Queue: 2 jobs
Job 1
Amino acid sequence: MKHAVVLLSGGLDSATTLAMARAQGYVTYALSFDYGQRHAAELEAARKVAASLGVKEHRVVKIDNGIFAGSALTDKIEVPKGRSAKEIGDGIPVTYVPARNTLFLAHALAWAETIPAGHIFLGVNAIDYSGYPDCRPEFIAMFEMLANLGTKAAIEGMRFQIHAPLIKMSKAQIICQARDLGVDLALTHSCYDPLPDGRACGQCDSCQLRRSGFREANLADPIPYAAA
């Protein structure tokens, strides 16, 4: 049996990645993080997605958000709303969380070595999220190198592979892939600044990318939005 740790935020991309890992025959272990994020509703979404896709185990790791300063997802900084596609793709956004994917992957690597599981999946995407330095193919390749240099398991012969199957896919392609794999996208949560009742704001970068993807895929988005 092949075993894999899958980073699961509860969003559309990570849910699709989990489904892809399962479709490839992996026994999946889902790993989510409570790091004081503004969009904490994603953790409940992650639990629902993990249950719906039949993971072997789902863990939620708590990280002190005091180490994440200067991000609109963890600090009292306004989440950008209503930005154009050009603005979204220009520079590193204020929603960047310092070294977040590095920390997430380090936790995933530790769990993978413990299980043991030679595979780690994450749903980063270099097309829609080109502004995030820790979503680039170069970053994934370097972390895989690190994993195989700095772990007992690798030194003793178990090679780790970091899989980022969505890295070159458009949002519409990801949505179609999720549909084909039977992912219940009504369970997913993408919004950076949800309303108290849980509805997505509809105007943040993540909401706009998601909505645009559904339009391009000619499919209806099953989640409710506060703004049209």
Job 2
Amino acid sequence: MLAAHASGTVVTESGAPSPAALLAWYDRHRRDLPWRTPPGERPDPYRVWLSEIMLQQTTVKAVAPYYLRFLARFPTVLALAQADLEEVLKLWAGLGYYARARNLHACARTVVARHAGRFPDDEAALRELPGIGAYTAAAIAAIAFDASATPIDGNVERVVTRLYAVEEQLPGAKPAVRGLAQGLTPARRAGDFAQALMDLGATLCAPKKPACVLCPWIDSCAARARGDAETFPRKARKSTGALRRGAAFVVVRDDGQLLVRTRPAKGLLGGMTEVPNSRWAHDFDLATALDQAPRLRLGKSKWRRIAGVVNHVFTHFPLELAVFRADMPARTKPPMGMRWIPVADLGSEALPNVVRKVVAHASVGNLNRSPRAPRRGARRSR
């Protein structure tokens, strides 16, 4: 049977979930992750912070190799602070949400300049640092310093909304979920408890087909008792931005050089490397696309349209790009504000995923290895 909860949700009459039961489960089944400190060792705040920034809106599987490369190149916050932003962006290339990389670099410099290279140990001070919001501040405070803080990510939201059968839709339900999760957080082992909640959501309390019979809170879960766990959390339908279109211009010299430019430091994909492209607009007219091509003293007849389009989805809008390619003599000078880079070095350039798609679509080299310079007019398989 079910009983009413003060928050307006419901719980099972068997009682509230036990933090001790979840911690005992975590001690037996905790995930082995590159950034997770072994039991008994004190976490390094720098590594906790680095992993939490990378994990924002990104899967553990995708983050792991990036994290290890970053740590190898920047083993301390001081090493990261002393690096050039361009190098940071190159290591970040492909991970997406590039504002995180810029904030990562700014935060490292702030920690060194204002805190002598040591991360503050309380949520309020952490939130004053660049790129650190409520969730990340709580995660660092709890995991790195064992402070009584409760980070709420998607996994935790799923666990809590099922545990208490929270009917209110997200994101409106976030304050209620936060209050319920904070009510569960124990005074001791807050960091382990935070990671236990995340692990529970990532493994047993999955979005589809949750493994309820293995859950340490099976007898306390209202949604499981009702038989509708998969319907939680309730979510308001997301509004998708209108499709934008544009054109990308891939220019390759006979000596294996690709024409690129650097995007403005602020804004979408700030500071990243891209091939020249048109403006992205809802009313883009493909018939006039070449009017926005880079000025290279070649007629429109020298451009050839690559069949098909490149599709990419940003957080707020989908994008569709037509791709044009032109091949130029080896000593062609770049237009103002642009530069040539070796096709063989593309794998180490700070190219966002949408640009990598464009380059691959135009059959330019291979971003995973160092190809030979393409011959004039030659095409490479993807």
